[in-house]
Amino acid sequence: MLWVDKYRPKTLDQIAVHDDIAENLKKLVSEHDCPHLLFYGPSGSGKKTLIMALLREMFGSAAEKVKIENKTWKIETGTRKIELELTTLSSTHHVELNPSDAGFQDRYIVQEIIKEMAKSRPIDVNGNKSYKVLVLNEVDKLSKEAQHSLRRTMEKYSASCRLILCCNSASRVIEAVRSRCLNIRINAPTNEQIVGVLRHIAKKEHLELPIGLATRIAVQSNRNLRRAILSFEACRVQQYPFTENQVVQTMDWEQYVAEIVSDIVNEQSPKRLYSVRLKIYELLVNCIPPEVILKKLVSELMKKLDSELKHEVSHWAAYYEHRMRLGQKSIFHIEGLNTCSFVNFISKALANCNFSPPSN
Amino acid sequence: MCETRVEHSEEIGNRFVRRLGSVAIIIHKQVSKLILEDFNLFTKDIYEDLDLSNVTYVGKKRKQQLCLDCGDVKDLWVDKYKPRCLAELAVHKKKVGEVNTWLEERFRMSKVNSCNNVLVLTGPAGVGKSATVHVVVSHIGAELCEWQTPTPTLWQEYNYNANSGISYISKLDEFETFVEKIRKYPSISSSSRECSKKNIVMLIDDLPVTNGRAADGRLRHCLHSLVISSQCPTVILITESSKTQSGEELLLLLEKAGASKLAFNPITANSIKKTLVRICREEMCSVTPEWIDHIAKGSGGDIRHAITALQYLCLRPNLLVSLPLSIPISCSSKGEPGVVTSVQSFEGLDEKFFSLSMGRDETLSLFHALGKFLHNKRDTEQPADLGQGYFQLQEMFMRYPLKMDAPEKILSQAYAEASSVADFLHENVLDFISDEAVDDAVTIASYLSDSDCLSATLTIRGSSGSSSILSRHDSKNVSQQVAASVAVRGVLFGNSHPLPSRWHSIRSPKLWQIKQLSFIKKNEILSKWCEAQCCFSICGFSVMTTEYQYALQLLGSKVSSLSAHTQNSQIYKPEQQDIRMGEQPDWMATDESTTQVGTSSIRQASIYDLDIHISGESEEDEIEEW
Prior knowledge:
The complex is a heterodimer. By secondary structure, chain A is of the alpha/beta class.
């Protein structure tokens, strides 16, 4: 088992990083009912861990007996029949799914599954009416239509089910949904917290972890706990006993993006543009989401840019990121950004050649 | 029913025909009583109909008799003026010569070396492939054995046959047995024993149409064995327009097996003209040189088409009379009221008229259109007269006028779909930008991004299903056109320093491969994840690819050495193989066909490839939408 899963806190009591939030959640649930919840925060900050622990708190260990299934929904709209297939993770008390996987037909999923759950309402041991919990991941990737229909179904069936929503950015969730939920922000863990977790794991695994290495892993993980643990384990596999200045591997795709950026910096021509395109294609083939590529590209570019040019490039990055969400062919838009940065580098080079102050 | 009876019993057939003939004569008399000479044309049509019915039912004797009855009914000129000697062939002398030498060589060497006995002739329809073979063979003095493709079986016919105990044989089966026969028994001229010493040339004019993988495989196997072991010289004709993906594969296979290939080009306008003039002379009809010129040019190198057009023209004597020799056509056709009503008054009226009545429909292959857009040919100076609505643009927005039709017209001629056009342009446009002009690349990239947004937004709206089918279709259509137009015009505008035109190959968009590959990869990852289900709660797919994948790769390589991990080793299966760009799954292999774009020769068939791709792509889209 990966350490990420092995040392995942199972209960709210065990939670180390966001212990204050865990405490509050515990109080919330102890009053037997809970509102709809919206967890948001950067990736690797512990949202899912908190949610799982919360479910366990609510339903006991029954919530841990989950099964994965590929469910097919047959949905009849007025004019046509749609069949949707989606992976769900369910126990007797909760269902978890990732509705944005359904693409632009996500709204049907949201409606249909909530209705289905409302139909079969569980009764607890004492014969009281109880409720089921629906965990929806990546709500921010849902289309606007789906979010609106989510809001309606939320109201209609709130008696029989509770929703726990989970997303990275709350700003992409519509107001109406946000106001119907209790919003819980999960911060990214600080480097110290990450180091603490790493040392905790090292102790459990009976490993000697030099503090320098732990800090470097934490720094490189970009305040992403999951990634920190993964790379810690990777370090363990690569070399043990640890040394203070051991290499911590960065993600291969990130190295690749860095390569692309240095390509862009070194030469600006249509031919280079083409070779850059091929490299981006390779990332896409390996299923790196285009948004992530674009984001990483920008952050790498920022390292190499003058402060005057940063503004320009980040403007265009935002512009093309928006375009990418509107359009379908992400490469067109990434390329738009690339050409812009090309031009910026050229203008910079020209300015340097002439020894004249760069003009904007 | 009549047909079958005629076939099976001659006696009944003859009686039937006699009756038919008399009916025809009666009709003729009535018609000629009723209809005056103005309606000459109409009666002629009827004669021809009768004539045709004779051909099918009766045979030659009867026909001649009827022809006498009806007066001046003619054969189709295409058949009548079939070339009979080498001089009459309109095909380029060199090609004819090549066919000739090939055949002669076969006969000379046949005793010595029996391999490489197959010649494949390719070319568009109507360039005289079979005519050449016929003439050349008769010129050499050999005998031609022709595989005549059986006509498709009708359902009624099938029923009839089934009742009478004849079992149905598929066309492919028939072809197979035929090939088997000619492989095993070289001399099959059983009918003409006296000339069995003569050389025999096999001609396979039309390969059977195959459908599906199994049938394809059978045909391929069959042809392969034919090429390897045919004992007499065999000529296979492949019409290029029917060259779909499988057709191209077939061609490759034939060549690989050792067949020699000879491609026929469309016949030049001049040699078509010569033939037409000859026919006119023999038919004693006076057609002005302008008309002949137009027919020859409008036929697109298809001589069969040209001759039929000429015959059609000669059927309408009115038109010929109204066309004085000296006056240019554009004026004269305006002066003719009958013509003008049929054609709206357009600027290019005469052209329009011709293409409507007797030219071939002018379509462009997608690659031709793309070539036009990418090469971006422009005049070198601004036109002096800019008209009234003109206003001065800033210099950076000024471009010289395009040396082509409006891009939208070209698009519609190429039947191109917006998204695929944008894909092709995106893939190839960088090759056509000069090395310094990065600014141009920026402009083009931004326009392509615009076009993608345009074409995407509307599909999403269409899918919401609020509007009725028809209006949805329309709005989608309009948006697609707009998107294509933006993409094309963006490329034309943006490429302000086009490279001097030279040979470029056009690649098929890699985007399509990428889509497919990433889809495969995604499924692969997901299935692996499902195997290891116990360990992971569902996390987002992006997290899987960006974080877990690489960590697992690192862990996987050394996992066996770690005892702690052995029990769960299934999770740590090392990545089987990365799907890299270099490797392609099989279905991709054929679409790499790089195609020469330029003014000279375009491979029409590529557009069929494209169709296949588009359909494949849409299937894939559906899967992704699920």
